[in-house]
Design a protein that fits this description.
Layout lengths: L1 E3 L4 H14 L8 E4 L2 E5 L6 E7 L5 E8 L12 E2 L14 E4 L2 E4 L4 E8 L8 E14 L9 E2 L2 E2 L3 E15 L7 E6 L4 E8 L5 E8 L11 E7 L3 E10 L3 E7 L8 E6 L1
């Protein structure tokens, strides 16, 4: 049995950012962030936190700002929206309060960053998201300068040297997952399974591909990791040859694909 990790938006972004942060041309300024995900529940909003550590041998000045990436943005690449003409109302970047927003770390120093969520309006049930973009700032003279804040945002007289991001998710209500599936093949006759998520919930779990006659005890032909954002669809490329039909089972735990089962025909 083969386990095929899916290169989702977070994998692509994390890979790009990791390469950028660890590139030797960047000198000796390095930093790390953990954990890479912050999660809120609207029913009990509590301040969350993550840690930033200076892992290099130079002092670094960092700025943290909330941003939002569309599901099909070049940074995210997590699929495509189901309704391209209608904007998905899941952006909470303007509701995030960060403390501190700017910090300076000496070598081997680390600092806790606190994140609070203060909704600006009543929200419907569903999953909401944003990112915290963490950037190293360096003045054009080579000296690290503090950011200059204006009414329109951050002034542009600073060179962004390195970046990474922390994903922020917030949930209102209890998730009820429901997927539609589409099966097709590419030019190499490989099976492509498209997960269609019409609901307002983010799904993070596993998809198992089986033969049509399989039972609940039959091992899958392959397992695929799936992160599906609300009201979107994304294709999952497998290494399986495209047959006339397969059975798809999915769940939050790869050992228990018990959230749904359907036959998918080419």
């Amino acid at each position: 049995m083969r386990y095929l990790p899916v290169m989702n938006r977070f994998c692509l972004l994390w890979l790009w950012l990791t390469l950028l942060v660890t590139s030797p041309v960047m000198g000796k300024a390095f930093f790390s962030v953990a954990p890479g995900v912050v999660q809120f529940e609207f029913s009990r909003l509590r301040t969350q936190s993550f840690m930033i550590s200076n892992t290099g041998d130079e002092r670094v000045r960092l700025v943290i700002r909330p941003v939002y990436f569309a599901v099909d943005s070049r940074s995210l690449r997590a699929g495509t929206p189901l309704n391209p003409d209608r904007k998905v109302q899941d952006n909470i970047s303007s509701s995030l309060v960060i403390s501190p927003r700017v910090l300076s770390l000496a070598p081997n120093q680390r600092r806790k960053v606190r994140v609070s969520l203060r909704p600006q309006k009543q929200l419907r049930q569903g999953d909401y998201r944003a990112h915290l973009l963490i950037s190293v700032l360096k003045g054009k003279s080579g000296r690290v300068n503090p950011p200059i804040t204006t009414t329109t945002g951050l002034a542009i007289n600073l060179d962004i040297q390195m970046e990474t991001a922390v994903a922020v998710y917030a949930r209102m209500g209890k998730a009820v997952y429901d997927f539609h599936w589409d099966c097709s093949k590419n030019s190499q006759n490989q099976l492509i399974v498209t997960a269609i998520n019409p609901n307002q919930w983010r799904f993070k779990g596993w998809v198992g591909i089986f033969t049509p006659e399989s039972t609940v005890k039959t091992p899958p032909l392959t397992l695929v990791r799936l992160i599906s954002l609300r009201e979107s669809k994304r294709p999952l490329l497998t290494e399986l040859p495209a047959e006339n039909s397969v059975r798809i089972r999915w769940g939050l735990d790869k050992e228990q694909l018990n959230m749904g089962s359907v036959n998918c025909n080419l």
